[in-house]
Design brief:
This protein is of the alpha/beta class. The two termini are 37 Å apart. The chain is 27% helix and 23% strand. The structure holds aspartic acid.
């Protein structure tokens, strides 16, 4: 049963937030979480009950994998009724992929799951980690009349709370590392935290919380560029066992109109490979009816990814493949919002 005092589970996977310099190499590597809590004594002022689970080994998020997403989803599942909210400390490099993955894997989520991390280790004087961690905990603990204010998988970073599956890491250097170009922030932290309630999703309470851990990894990304060769396209589309592809196109979903390219796309579609058209643009939406080049793809059976990010797109395809649906159902769901990842 959930304790009456506000209780938060912090899941520490690794990432810069908890890294220290390895004196031998000079490179940053993760260190144990008990030391991390010592670095932020301010957390005690909340008066919350804070428990932690630390990954062993801690990882740089470049090493994240679908197996680790399943592990994270199961930790949330096994502790779902014990805590008011969850904070996942995670490296920024793949945070958008992980937050997208959990947004699909935690169906009918009705508690906050807030990812955060930092650009500078928490032990450093100018760290952004303390602020991010403190605000993430505050958001995970934010309830009104017994109901969570943000029962979604989110990313809190540099004063902003985003829907996780709408984010992209866009800056490797600045504190504001994430953007959500196609969906407004769910909250802004200033003197107080201001919630953007009309944009927050609230599940129907009667819908049962379900956790999915099966993901299909027979997916690939085909990113177009002027001069891409048939051999490159073949290397991707002819992979053994390939089931789904994110086709990263130009602008409003346009691609090369040459025969050699279209024939390869056609062949892949005929083989039953799901091809989802996602724009290389950071903002805006795929509209395959707008230009002839886009229409050619649509006629071949390429699906419309609309305003999905490529991070959410690849993970969504893994999620759908993991459900072993019919090809028709997979194609239908690929173009629909499952967890608020596209604007319908
Ligand atoms: N390489 C680090 C990671 O993603 C970067 C970070 O945490 O910001 O784990």
């Amino acid at each position: 049963m959930q304790a009456s005092a506000t209780s938060i589970l912090i899941i520490y996977t690794g990432g810069t937030i908890g890294m220290k310099e390895n004196p031998e190499t000079g490179a940053l590597a993760p260190f144990k979480f008990d030391q991390l809590l010592n670095e932020v004594p301010e957390l005690r002022k909340f008066g919350f009950s804070l428990d932690t689970i630390s990954f062993d080994p801690l990882i740089d998020s470049s090493d994240i994998s679908p197996a680790i997403w399943a592990e994270l989803a199961l930790i949330v599942k096994n502790n779902y009724h014990k805590y008011h909210g969850f904070v996942i400390l995670h490296g920024t490099d793949t945070m958008s992929f992980s937050a997208s993955a959990l947004s699909f894997m935690l169906e009918n989520l009705n508690k906050p799951v807030v990812f955060t991390g930092s650009q500078l280790p928490i032990g450093m004087l100018r760290t952004d980690g303390k602020e991010n961690l403190i605000s993430a905990i505050e958001i995970a603990a934010a309830y009104s009349n017994g109901k969570p204010l943000v029962p979604e998988v989110t990313i809190f970073f540099e004063n902003q709370l985003f829907r996780g599956n709408r984010t992209t890491k866009h800056n490797a250097e600045h504190f504001n590392a994430f953007r959500s170009d196609n969906y407004p922030p769910l909250a802004q932290a200033g003197i107080s935290i201001k919630y953007n309630f009309p944009y927050i999703h609230y599940p129907t309470p009667s819908q049962e919380f379900k956790v999915h851990t099966n993901l299909g990894c027979d997916v690939a990304i085909l990113k177009l560029f002027p001069g891409i060769s048939p051999a490159t396209v073949d290397a991707i589309l002819n992979q053994e066992g390939l089931k789904a592809v994110v086709l990263e196109t130009y602008g409003a979903g346009n691609a090369i109109s040459d025969d050699w390219f279209l024939k390869r796309i056609q062949k892949a579609v005929e083989k039953g490979i799901v091809i989802l058209n996602v724009t290389q643009c950071k903002a805006g939406v795929v509209d395959m009816d707008k230009y002839e080049n886009g229409l050619l793809l649509k006629k071949l059976g390429v699906l419309n990814g609309k305003d999905i990010t490529f991070e959410a797109a690849i993970v969504k395809l893994m999620f759908l493949l993991g459900k072993n649906l019919s090809l028709e159902k997979t194609k239908e769901l690929a173009q629909k919002s499952i967890s608020g990842e596209i604007t319908s």
